[in-house]
């Protein structure tokens, strides 16, 4: 099958991400990878929970003293919304509407960048207001590693979207790149899933005690 | 091979009491590297090599699902291994045991542990990739008619082992990251004065470590299953029970890791739960053992070299397995733990299981992979030398352990009743080494003589791989075969056919291009690892911080990320092997 | 909606109109689940801000998070579609391992 | 082939040999010669599990040998095609259920013993005056040496652990640098000395068995802890309860600054101060618990070994020689230890003689 075959919105297959064998493999392989990532983040969560509030002495700030819930709440909203916008993008991908897909992906990227900006601000705040750094305590190491790993995933997700957008800006959709867009959006949803737990376990439960 | 050499040094050092063949620090480096190399750089990759060569053939696929990732996995693993071994030349190898327990590994001076952490991180990424690749291959690429319950057992065990890789390697990755951050970036995960906790490392390591031993043994079980069926001329007894047992072992493998930590002081409740869970694994493993024996029962057994290994495997592995169950008796493990009893246990299961499996697989699949037969007489010589040596070396170690010999000791002092046992053990190791030398000789003369063989050189082949040429053409199957049941080739043979019924007409075959990028990506990480390591001053043996380190770290990462970007920017549609060429291949007599 | 013309696409298996329709319906489900996610997050947030007792809050928080994840997986990531058998198997196995890891770390890493 | 078969038939025999051999090893070191309740319990578990395992091996061997003898191709004919049986439900159920039963037989005593050995309630018991009735020892593991602190008695020793026989002794163990593991094979299984927490367990030293071992058991470090992990031995002196009380009294009455016995020793004491030995080593049995950087030397003159490994076998001269060798060459004797050696430039031969004389005189109980 010719990969760069041109389609119309009517000839475009129903599940373009799974029409070719390569696409099918990519789709499945990526899901499996997400299964592995689940365990990866679980290990990080577990480590964080074991080290939460473990500090060398009393002068060090604890979770309850620091976390800025309203700020984190806004971040959560941003990321949740970006998850929806990427669903929109996939909706248009399946309808073979490249322009709209691009637009929604761009919005997704924008929301992701905003999230990242808040996160950087947040970290900066903890470091300066509370001397809560990566090296100041085991608590700090655990916190920044867990949340930072998530942040790194956001960065990678954004980079991936941007790369795909640039690369394919001229050539439109075809069966070669459709699976790529699809898989990237799966990744983005997964990042959101992880964040739901970070918000709940680290921030909300951290504030309660 | 390097791992084997290290083992010989260990045994020479321990041959006599109070020996000074190697120094204390060097001994710890050797023993760490022996364990690490054998597990990560010998046993696992060799098994992967068989999986790679055999699994696509067994399920009737043209290739693995992701050829690109396949080569990426290989190069990552390759550079990880090189990096780890460079430690010998760059200021000292890791010296905290293959388990690298946190308090000692943080206290360890020089860069040894850094080599361990970064090397395993890189090669571990390669392993994870390989695991995903096999899973997708097996799920998506089976030939028409090849249902899950018709897959050969080696494919099944590859499947389960790959699933274990998928879930077991992430905890190791995290553990290594934590150690990396602690050692190289000032984090405090394992520093108890800063609130850290070393037990976290132990858990993460063993959550990985225990499934890891099943990652090693399951494919070996798979190889043996093929061999028993082939050389008994009989269908595998209780096939579906075998499949179920394989899956169950994989599943239980995740619930028992604390049996390595009975003496840590986790409390009687945890110890009791994990003790019982561990013992439970004896049941599915027993099912397999009995099914193998019943496969031979009523069959027509031919004692070829691979079959000899398979036959020797049963008592050897059962002996190792039952000592495993003894170790699972938590209260008694307080006595066994960290003694030579444990060393004896795991060499019995690893050598009696995994290494015998590798050696059996080598003889069994050599003709398929290279088109020549290893010499059977020499093969049998290797077998006997290795087997006798193996029992001689490790049987006595059970008693050494119970007589009070801890493991990982550089020397033992005289007059503690440990001399005789150790001497015997060392003699045994020389037998094994001799066996391996004969094998190497065998391989060399076989390749020099280069006598080609046909597609089913053992005459009793049952599964798809024996239906095509040895070695197979690079596109494996010209036409995908139609699978009509378990042991498809056997079915066709019994009906008097000499080849598989094709499931498709001859057509063009789509093949991927070879790519240079995986190599560059792995190289980038390799370079970055040096940067990460040398940017810390307080560890360096000469106390220096290297100005070039950070830039090197950055450059390395850029190379990797850059080549990833190139990969996704450059379209790679592969190429086609045309129908006409395929037919020409055929006429030239590539087949049968 | 009355006419289902036979002339749909070059790919005869696919009925274009029907597909469009289904996609639109799905989109509605997406928006609803998004609204629910926002709502659940809000509840969780308010619960914490208003300072209930932790033994009461924790289970509810985890439940809310659980629901959100299911929504993400089944609606946004399409796990409700068919052909996700292997996917579900591996994701749940992963989740199981994840759970075991977290439980042990919360019970037998202490001091 | 024949040879091979014989070899395998021998395997159960080997295992039977296990029982004969079980009396083997040295009584002061071997877990196969249990010298106390704890070790006995563990030994019994080993026996039980070994018996089950031997049964398993025998069953496997019977089926195994029959099938490889009876169904060789040479015997059944080159061209026979065996019947392709699928399996047998009955057989499969048997070999699932029987192992489950065997495992259960093993699991019950395992769980019971695990809980019994973790039972620490007696440790907290107090008499009418609120004093603890059980003997408690705080063990601190350091790079290659052991400190034993008796918190209720105000006594510290190092390298040689002194315990009374025929009663439970409770241990609180911790490590001060990296992880080690506390193990007295003949008396009971080990427990790790972690860096971040205190582990607690108990042992019981049997009076009669102790005599067979000359009242001196070997203890070992069972966790890789660095280059000299292999040499991190300690010794356990067992005393009858009365003798133990005497020992306690002697230790408690020992003066804070031991009086040098002669001029040479007096000079030695000076050197001890000048060289900074005093910075790491306490010389009175009440000092330095939990904090000192080197072993307490108050009882050095009566220890069974120098530095836990140099066995002078009761020979005074050898004892002196070893002390000197240690001070000169600590680095070579135990690579990686924190004391390091003192060569001629640091410490003249005369000073070394004086120092040794002084150290040899550090005795409390045997005086
Ligand atoms: C291939 C590798 C491999 C395999 C397959 C196994 C298999 C098993 N292992 Fe082993 N193990 C290791 C590799 C392996 N192990 C390594 C490398 C270490 C040390 C790591 C380190 O510290 O460096 C170790 C350490 C180790 C320990 C920790 C010891 C300690 O450090 O204190 C324990 C404790 O429970 C254990 C148990 C078991 C058990 C119960 C099995 C079971 O799976 C065995 C099951 C098999 C059988 C039981 C035989 C066949 C069954 C029958 C014939 C049925 C009837 C049987 C009965 C009813 C009993 N192993
Ligand atoms: C795969 C794993 C593996 C293998 C094969 C071996 C093989 C051997 N090991 Fe290994 N050993 C370990 C894994 C392994 N070991 C581990 C994990 C440890 C613990 C380390 C630690 O404490 O941290 C250990 C520790 C260990 C000790 C204890 C050290 C100590 O605690 O102080 C000793 C001592 O006798 C020892 C001896 C030997 C010997 C004599 C062999 C001989 O069998 C070697 C002879 C073999 C060869 C010379 C070559 C091997 C052949 C192949 C791999 C197959 C070849 C296949 C093809 C060519 C296709 N080993
Ligand atoms: Cu201390 Cu080994
Ligand atoms: Cu294990």
Automatic annotation (TrEMBL), chain A:
InterPro entries: Cyt_c/ubiquinol_Oxase_su3, Cyt_c_oxidase-like_su3, Cyt_c_oxidase_su3-like_sf, Cyt_c_oxidase_su3_a-hlx, Ubiquinol_oxase_su3_dom. It is found in: Cell membrane. It is an enzyme of class 1 (oxidoreductase). The keyword Cell membrane applies. Residues 1-207 form the Heme-copper oxidase subunit III family profile domain. Its EC number is 1.9.3.1. The keyword Oxidoreductase applies. It is a multi-pass membrane protein. Its main location: membrane. Signal peptide: none annotated. Pfam families: COX3. One of its GO terms (cellular component) is plasma membrane. Keywords: Cell membrane, Membrane, Oxidoreductase, Transmembrane, Transmembrane helix. One of its GO terms (biological process) is aerobic electron transport chain. GO terms for molecular function: cytochrome-c oxidase activity; oxidoreductase activity. The chain crosses the membrane at residues 28-51, 71-91, 103-121, 141-166, 186-206. It comes from Jeotgalibacillus soli. Belongs to the cytochrome c oxidase subunit 3 family. This is Cytochrome B oxidoreductase.
From TrEMBL, chain B:
Its main location: membrane. InterPro entries: Cyt_c_oxase-like_su1_dom, Cyt_c_oxase-like_su1_sf, Cyt_C_Oxase_1, Cyt_c_Oxase_su1_BS. Gene3D superfamilies: 1.10.287.70, Cytochrome c oxidase-like, subunit I domain. One of its GO terms (biological process) is electron transport coupled proton transport. The chain crosses the membrane at residues 38-60, 72-93, 113-141, 153-181, 204-224, 236-258, 270-294, 306-332, 344-366, 378-400, 420-444, 516-534, 546-566. The keyword Zinc does not apply. One of its GO terms (cellular component) is plasma membrane. Pathway: Energy metabolism; oxidative phosphorylation. It is a multi-pass membrane protein. One of its GO terms (molecular function) is oxidoreductase activity. It is an enzyme of class 7 (translocase). Its EC number is 7.1.1.9. It catalyses: 4 Fe(II)-[cytochrome c] + O2 + 8 H(+)(in) = 4 Fe(III)-[cytochrome c] + 2 H2O + 4 H(+)(out). It is found in: Cell membrane. Keywords: Cell membrane, Copper, Electron transport, Heme, Iron, Membrane, Metal-binding, Oxidoreductase, Respiratory chain, Translocase, Transmembrane, Transmembrane helix, Transport. CDD domains: Ubiquinol_Oxidase_I (cd01662). Residues 1-484 form the Cytochrome oxidase subunit I profile domain. PANTHER family: CYTOCHROME C OXIDASE SUBUNIT 1 (PTHR10422:SF44). This is Cytochrome c oxidase subunit 1. It comes from Jeotgalibacillus soli. The lineage of its organism: Bacteria, Bacillati, Bacillota, Bacilli, Bacillales.
TrEMBL record, chain C:
It comes from the Bacteria. The chain crosses the membrane at residues 29-49, 55-77, 89-110. GO terms for molecular function: cytochrome bo3 ubiquinol oxidase activity; proton transmembrane transporter activity. GO terms for cellular component: cytochrome o ubiquinol oxidase complex; plasma membrane. It is a multi-pass membrane protein. InterPro entries: Cyt_c_oxidase_su4_bacillaceae (IPR014257), Cyt_c_oxidase_su4_prok (IPR005171), Cytochrome_c_oxidase_bac_sub4 (IPR050968). Its EC number is 1.9.3.1. Keywords: Cell membrane, Membrane, Oxidoreductase, Transmembrane, Transmembrane helix. It is found in: Cell membrane. One of its GO terms (biological process) is aerobic electron transport chain. The keyword Transmembrane applies. Pfam families: COX4_pro (PF03626). Coiled coil: none annotated. PANTHER family: CYTOCHROME BO(3) UBIQUINOL OXIDASE SUBUNIT 4. Belongs to the cytochrome c oxidase bacterial subunit 4 family. This is Cytochrome B6. It comes from Jeotgalibacillus soli.
TrEMBL record, chain D:
Pfam families: COX2 (PF00116), COX2_TM (PF02790), Cytochrom_C (PF00034). It is found in: Cell membrane; Membrane. The chain crosses the membrane at residues 45-66, 93-118. One of its GO terms (molecular function) is oxidoreductase activity. Keywords: Copper, Electron transport, Heme, Iron, Membrane, Metal-binding, Oxidoreductase, Respiratory chain, Translocase, Transmembrane, Transmembrane helix, Transport. It catalyses: 4 Fe(II)-[cytochrome c] + O2 + 8 H(+)(in) = 4 Fe(III)-[cytochrome c] + 2 H2O + 4 H(+)(out). Its EC number is 7.1.1.9. The keyword Electron transport applies. It is an enzyme of class 7 (translocase). GO terms for biological process: ATP synthesis coupled electron transport. Its cofactor is Cu cation. It is a multi-pass membrane protein. Binds a copper A center. Residues 20-121 form the Cytochrome oxidase subunit II transmembrane region profile domain. PANTHER family: CYTOCHROME C OXIDASE SUBUNIT 2, CYTOCHROME C OXIDASE, SUBUNIT II. Belongs to the cytochrome c oxidase subunit 2 family. Subunits I and II form the functional core of the enzyme complex. Electrons originating in cytochrome c are transferred via heme a and Cu(A) to the binuclear center formed by heme a3 and Cu(B). This is Cytochrome c oxidase subunit 2. It comes from Jeotgalibacillus soli.
């Amino acid at each position: 099958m010719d990969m760069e075959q041109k389609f119309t919105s009517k000839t475009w297959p129903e599940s373009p991400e799974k029409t070719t064998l390569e696409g099918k493999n990519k789709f499945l392989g990526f899901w499996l990878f997400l299964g592995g990532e689940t365990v990866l983040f679980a290990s990080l969560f577990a480590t964080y929970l074991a080290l939460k509030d473990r500090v060398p002495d009393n002068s060090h700030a604890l979770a309850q003293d620091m976390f800025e819930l309203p700020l984190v709440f806004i971040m959560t909203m941003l990321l949740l919304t970006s998850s929806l916008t990427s669903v929109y993008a996939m909706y248009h991908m399946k309808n073979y509407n490249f322009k709209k897909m691009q637009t929604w992906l761009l919005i997704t990227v924008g929301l992701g960048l905003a999230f990242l900006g808040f996160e950087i601000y947040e970290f900066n705040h903890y470091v300066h207001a509370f001397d809560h750094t990566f090296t100041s305590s085991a608590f700090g190491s655990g916190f920044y590693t867990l949340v930072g790993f998530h942040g790194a995933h956001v960065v990678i997700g954004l980079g991936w979207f941007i790369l795909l957008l640039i690369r394919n800006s001229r050539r439109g959709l075809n069966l070669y790149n459709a699976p790529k867009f699809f898989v990237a959006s799966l990744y983005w949803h997964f990042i959101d899933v992880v964040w739901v737990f970070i918000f709940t376990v680290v921030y909300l439960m951290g504030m309660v005690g | 091979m390097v791992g084997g050499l290290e083992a010989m040094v260990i045994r020479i050092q321990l041959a006599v009491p109070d020996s000074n063949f190697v120094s204390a620090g060097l001994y710890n480096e050797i023993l760490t590297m022996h364990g690490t190399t054998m597990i990560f750089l010998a046993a696992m990759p060799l098994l992967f090599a068989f999986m790679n060569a055999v699994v696509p053939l067994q399920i009737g696929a043209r290739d693995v699902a992701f050829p690109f990732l396949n080569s990426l996995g290989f190069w990552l693993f390759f550079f990880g291994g090189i990096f780890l071994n460079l430690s010998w030349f760059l200021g000292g190898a890791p010296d905290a045991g293959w388990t690298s327990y946190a308090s000692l590994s943080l206290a360890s001076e020089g860069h040894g542990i850094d080599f361990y952490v970064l090397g395993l991180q890189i090669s571990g990424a390669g392993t994870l990739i390989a695991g995903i690749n096999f899973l997708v291959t097996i799920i998506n690429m089976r030939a028409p008619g090849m249902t899950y319950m018709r897959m050969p057992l080696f494919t099944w065990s590859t499947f389960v082992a790959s699933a274990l890789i998928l879930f077991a390697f992430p905890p190791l990755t995290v553990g290594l990251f934590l150690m990396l951050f602690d050692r190289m970036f000032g984090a405090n995960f394992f520093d108890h004065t800063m609130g850290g906790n070393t037990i976290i490392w132990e858990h993460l390591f063993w959550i990985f470590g225990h499934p890891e031993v099943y990652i090693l043994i399951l494919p070996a079980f798979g190889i043996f299953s093929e061999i028993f069926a082939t050389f008994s001329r009989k269908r595998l007894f209780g096939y579906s029970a075998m499949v179920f047992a394989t899956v169950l072992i994989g599943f239980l493998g995740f619930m028992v890791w604390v049996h390595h930590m009975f003496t840590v002081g986790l409390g009687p409740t945890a110890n009791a739960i994990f003790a019982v869970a561990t013992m439970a694994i004896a049941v599915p493993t027993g099912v397999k053992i009995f099914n193998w024996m019943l496969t031979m029962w009523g069959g027509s057994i031919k004692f070829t070299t691979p079959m000899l290994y398979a036959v020797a495997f049963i008592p050897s592995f059962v002996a190792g397995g039952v000592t495993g169950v003894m170790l699972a008796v938590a209260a008694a493990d307080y006595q066994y733990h960290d003694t030579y009893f444990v060393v004896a246990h795991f060499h019995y299961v690893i050598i009696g299981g995994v290494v015998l499996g590798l050696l059996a697989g080598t003889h069994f699949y050599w003709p398929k992979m290279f088109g020549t037969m290893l010499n059977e007489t020499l093969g049998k010589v290797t077998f006997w030398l290795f087997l006798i040596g193996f029992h001689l070396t490790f049987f006595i170690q059970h008693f050494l352990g119970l007589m009070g010999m801890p493991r990982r000791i550089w020397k033992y002092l005289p007059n503690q009743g440990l001399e005789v046992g150790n001497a015997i053990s060392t003699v045994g190791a020389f037998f094994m080494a001799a066996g391996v030398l004969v094998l190497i000789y065998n391989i060399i003369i076989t390749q020099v003589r280069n006598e080609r063989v046909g597609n089913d050189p053992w005459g009793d082949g049952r599964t798809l791989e024996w239906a095509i040429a040895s070695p197979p053409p690079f596109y494996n199957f010209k036409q995908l075969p139609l699978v009509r049941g378990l042991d498809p080739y056997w079915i066709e043979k019994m009906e008097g056919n000499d080849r598989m019924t094709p499931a498709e007409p001859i057509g063009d075959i789509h093949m991927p291009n070879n790519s240079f990028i995986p190599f560059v990506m792995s190289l980038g990480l390799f370079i970055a690892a040096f940067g990460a390591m040398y940017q810390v001053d307080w560890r360096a043996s000469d106390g220096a911080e290297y100005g070039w380190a950070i830039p090197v770290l950055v450059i390395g990462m850029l190379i990797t990320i850059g080549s990833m970007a190139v990969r996704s920017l450059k379209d790679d549609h592969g190429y086609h092997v045309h129908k006409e060429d395929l037919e020409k291949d055929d006429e030239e007599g590539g087949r049968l | 909606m009355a006419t289902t013309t036979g002339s749909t696409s070059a790919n005869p298996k696919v009925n274009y109109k029907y597909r469009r329709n289904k996609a639109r319906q799905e989109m509605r489900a997406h928006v609803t689940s998004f609204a629910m996610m926002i709502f659940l997050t809000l509840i969780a947030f308010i619960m914490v801000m208003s300072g209930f007792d932790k033994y009461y809050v924790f289970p509810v928080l985890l439940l809310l998070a659980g629901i959100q994840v299911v929504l993400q997986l089944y609606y946004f990531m399409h796990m409700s579609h068919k052909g996700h058998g292997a996917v579900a198997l591996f994701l749940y196995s992963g989740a199981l391992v994840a759970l075991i890891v977290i439980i042990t770390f919360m019970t037998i890493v202490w001091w | 082939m024949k040879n091979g078969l014989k070899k395998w038939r021998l395997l159960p025999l080997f295992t039977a040999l296990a029982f004969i051999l079980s009396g083997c090893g040295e009584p002061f070191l071997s877990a196969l010669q249990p010298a106390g309740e704890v070790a006995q319990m563990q030994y019994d578990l080993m026996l039980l599990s070994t018996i089950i395992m031997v049964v398993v091996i025998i069953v496997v061997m019977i089926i195994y040998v029959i099938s490889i003898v009876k169904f060789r191709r040479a015997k059944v004919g080159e061209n026979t095609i065996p019947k392709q049986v699928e399996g047998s439900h009955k057989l499969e159920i048997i070999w699932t259920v029987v192992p489950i039963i065997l495992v259960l037989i093993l699991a019950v005593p395992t769980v019971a013993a695990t809980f019994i050995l973790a039972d620490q309630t007696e440790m907290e018991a107090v008499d009418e005056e609120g004093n603890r009735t059980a003997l408690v020892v705080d063990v601190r593991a350091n790079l290659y040496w052991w400190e034993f602190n008796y918190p209720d008695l105000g006594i510290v020793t190092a390298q040689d652990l002194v315990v009374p026989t025929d009663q439970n002794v409770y241990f609180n163990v911790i490590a001060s640098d990296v992880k080690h593991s506390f193990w007295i094979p003949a008396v009971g299984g080990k427990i790790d000395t972690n860096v971040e927490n205190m582990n607690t367990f108990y042992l019981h030293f049997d009076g009669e068995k102790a005599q067979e071992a000359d009242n001196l058991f070997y203890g070992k470090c069972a966790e890789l802890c660095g280059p000299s992990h292999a040499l991190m031995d300690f010794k356990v002196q067992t005393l009858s309860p009365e003798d133990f009380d005497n020992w306690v009294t002697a230790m408690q009455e020992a003066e804070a600054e031991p009086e040098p016995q002669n001029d040479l020793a007096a000079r030695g004491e000076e050197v001890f101060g000048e060289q900074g030995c005093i910075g790491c080593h306490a010389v009175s049995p009440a000092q330095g618990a939990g904090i000192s950087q080197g072993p307490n030397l108050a009882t050095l003159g009566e220890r069974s070994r120098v530095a836990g490994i140099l066995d002078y076998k009761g020979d005074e001269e050898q004892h002196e020689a070893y002390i000197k060798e240690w001070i000169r060459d600590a680095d070579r004797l135990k690579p990686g230890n924190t004391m390091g050696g003192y060569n001629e430039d640091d410490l003249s031969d005369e000073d070394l003689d004086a120092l040794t004389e002084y150290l040899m005189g550090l005795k409390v109980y045997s005086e």
